[in-house]
């Protein structure tokens, strides 16, 4: 049996762990699918490349509010898709070839046999240390009939042959918000079936209410609605739903395509984690401490396999910590994810960090709240924006920021100085008054929200 110093399971974020610092170790990496994992091949990166194309179409269609009359003549989906994946797909082969120069690469899924041995296809390999970075996959809910109809998840829909004339999306979270926007802007008639009363329910309520209101202007939203069953109809699907207030139970929505986007679950169920003695939580995540040590000595875990955030910037930070800890066992670093920001790249964009207003109240914090509309600032006028806003929350005891939520153009970029300020523990007054904000940039809306506290 071949023996290594370090074996990494999963070449998504796990691939980034290996570099010059680990070159002195006998290493191997196991990846049954594509190097780069979810983010590169079927997640963050392709989805944002499609979002930019959707933004171009949306900008053209909405330019008449500025006095510029434009129309979208034609969306060449295949050209967009091939541009996106023409850039992404070659990276797998080059990554494999590059890794093979320095280490063994295994291309079948790994399963633990014991805390020091994994089975990869017909081989067994042993290692002093393992890093488990096997990621997550889309949840496929137990909807009657689903197994008998063609359906997509985020893994497949970005590679389809044509934009479906109509699309039903089950789920109202990140993926529904982003890919619903993409396919809507590029030509589909989109229906979103969400079991709760709002889209993006994890956002601050004011933000998610505004987003739901705006999404309802371009998609058909079936809120508080359950999918009862699905069946094939013509070249597409018929989705039977029930439960929405004010509508008859038994309504059927027909569409050319179906996208299931109800969350993601860790791939740990396919790893025989028990054979290694790894503790899992009730959602199947590998339990680690703040240093990313699992319950088994010399087995580490990172990314979607272990954290609940399921965000790439979190996995990236974890890679740095795990790499350091592997190499410096006498100087263990930790990562306490006190502040994990996120953004939703839809139209409008959303970005958020820290507590929502409801979470602050649940913790007994009678927080100060500053809200400013984009429309109150010069650049907001230039954009003719009427719906975006910045909301900041501060602790009344010391006026430090405890939450920030933005909905509107460039929200994901605008929030960054607030993330910095919160991470560094600055008071709202310091970032509002001791910093100059470039006039008349959109950042003035952040300044104004802070001054409103
Ligand atoms: C559509 C979509 C859009 C997203 N957009 C964003 C975004 O804009 N911003 C953001 O921060 N996050 C985004 N995410 C989330 C982000 O992609 C993930 O958080 C991130 O990819 C997690 O990295 P990871 O390394 O933990 O897992 P992965 O990247 O999934 O890598 C895990 C790897 O392990 C391999 N593997 C699985 N089982 C085994 C096994 N038994 N043995 C060996 N290898 C195995 C898999 O094949 C995979 O390549 C998005 C996700 C999706 C689905
Ligand atoms: N911009 C980003 O950072 C980004 C983008 C896409 C995905 N992601 C990651 O991928 C994860 C998965 O995204 P997602 O959109 O699949 O999940 P999600 O957890 O964001 O949302 C799932 C939604 O589906 C609803 N739902 C669950 N079961 C349902 C059912 N049977 N019928 C109707 N609605 C149902 C839930 O109420 C929830 O609102 C995200 O949590 C996020 O971590 C991140």
UniProtKB/TrEMBL annotation:
Residues 4-317 form the FAD/NAD(P)-binding domain. Its cofactor is FAD. Pfam families: Pyr_redox_2, Pyr_redox_dim. Keywords: Disulfide bond, FAD, Flavoprotein, NADP, Oxidoreductase, Redox-active center. Transmembrane segments: none annotated. It comes from the Bacteria. NCBIfam families: PRK07846.1. Belongs to the class-I pyridine nucleotide-disulfide oxidoreductase family. This is Mycothione reductase. It comes from Actinoallomurus vinaceus. The lineage of its organism: Bacteria, Bacillati, Actinomycetota, Actinomycetes, Streptosporangiales.
